[in-house]
Amino acid sequence: MEKCFLFLLVLCVSLLPETACAASAPPPQTINMPHVYIVFGVLLVAAVLFFTEWIPLAVTSILVPCALSTLGVITVKEAWISFGDTSILTIVGLFMLGEATFATGFAQRVATVIISKAGASETRLLVFAILLIAFMSAFLNNAGVTAITLPMLISIARKAHLSPSRILLPTAYAASFGGCISLVGQAPSMVANGILAKMAPEYGQFAFFEFAWYGLPLTLIGAVLFALFPRFLVPPAREDVAELKEIEIPDGGVHMWIAGGIYFLVIICMATGLVPLTSAAMLGAMLCILTRCMTLKQAQAGIDWTTVWLFAGMLSMSFAMNKSGAATLIAHFVVSYISDPLFLFCTLMAVTGILTNIMSNTATTAIMVPLVIPIALEMNLSPLPFVMGIAMNAAACFMTPIATPSNTLVLRPGNYTFFDYVRYGFFWQVIAYALSLLIIPRVWPFMP
User: For the chain, does the N or the C end have fewer beta carbons within 10 angstroms?
Assistant: First the structure.
């Protein structure tokens, strides 16, 4: 049983530096132990603050490079250079580009047309809603997709004499399913991809739709199981469901189609590699502003700054872990106890699945990925399956209302309880975990 808890000790390894060194081969001379103590101390404090959210996540993230540079682990330039990283600019560009589809009414119009075709059948409406939200979440902000479809789903369910509580929680889960299909589907995918490029550049980055190896099966399995077994997987009907004001669809006119066209052109360029990711995202966002699909103010408002700050701040942590030798120390410690790649993979995915339900999935990714890459490299394994596994298990979180913004958004409208999320989400958490064990090591082998 001791092995099952070993990885949980990694975050606390700063308390056991002598044990780690004694249990493994002598670490390289480049390890700076005072700086290692500082790095692990900052990481532990950041993890506690991410978990408790005593202060906003963005503030915690910015304090990380502040602390590391002030305490001399990294230079001021090293601390803040990540804020201009191309991965950060890609995320910013995609947030602005996605906002154009909402500002012009393109996303709302697509959702309205498709959902209105569902008719009065509960199963038909459920499957239509799941597939629609999963598809839109593969390309747009999950919370935005859930927010615009919530009033529509409640209204259509009422007209068909159906209980909205039977529909809303499954569609929140669908947002997580679909978010696993592409690079831009969820923040964990983008964060993991950026950290991978920094810590293991020789392995490159994941392609735009490479995540679909996992995301598409998860989405299809979700839609099929919800359709076949609603009695067991869908919450019971409730009459006291909150009413939401119908969202007015902006009359974007020709701009609506321009924004939609620009968005899908950018997706094609990214998927085919015709234009570099950062250039495609930024060019698309600027075209939407220049063609008056949205104003500069709307573009800025569409950026999820918490994700941006969190990603940038934790990039400085990954740099500090490498420079101080903390990453090497962790790798020696873990490798001295765990030699089986599959056991390591299973343990890491389980830890990620637990953490992502009790803290931000983006924060979970930002903490776990910098830890796992040096471990994989120390074991002469490819970091790709581990990084992909963490990103997907962090994104697929179903067991608490705080796990994702989509889960939170349906809590009050569906009149759900915390236990509803545990009861119905546990099954999907197990499915997501099992699917990662079946698919990821086969698509991305452990041996480079």
Answer: N
